[in-house]
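So, could you explain the following?
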Amino acid sequence: MSGEELQTGKTAGRRSAFRALVALAVFVAILLAVYLAQPGDFLLYVKAFHVIAVMSWMAGLLYMPRLFIYHSDAEPGSAQSETFKMMEQRLLKIIMNPAMMITWVLGLYLAWDVYEFRGGWLHAKIGLVVLLTMVHVLFGRAVRSFAVDGPRKAPRYWRMMNELPTVLMIGIVILVIVKPF
């Protein structure tokens, strides 16, 4: 990768980070405005924002292992590998990390305000979200390892890891909708 290409990548990365920061600021401003206005349906707004954050986080958790599969096959130091590094870092820092934090904050608010942390289904759901967070941390470590051309897991490993967020998501959705216990 030439110096000019690298600079363009860094410039594009800064622009992407800025746009993500602006989007996050707008999201927080809307949430704050709704909180200050305290409309009668305030909790519906909180639930909606929570679902939006969950969807964004899940999109990242489902896409990241796909990037790892392709990255595992790329030659370390190649232009393709460098592109995957940039994509993985941006996905993690600009989408997944903020979405996870918003998911947790709003989810805990709902657990406290609406359910008063009661219900076996809620405890089980929080347990599954903790496991989902552990998957997120594992993916973050893999991003850092790929970034320094560290040891790589086989594509087959990442194909199996690609299923873990899906299985956890299915359990979480069933617990939230059905509330079986």
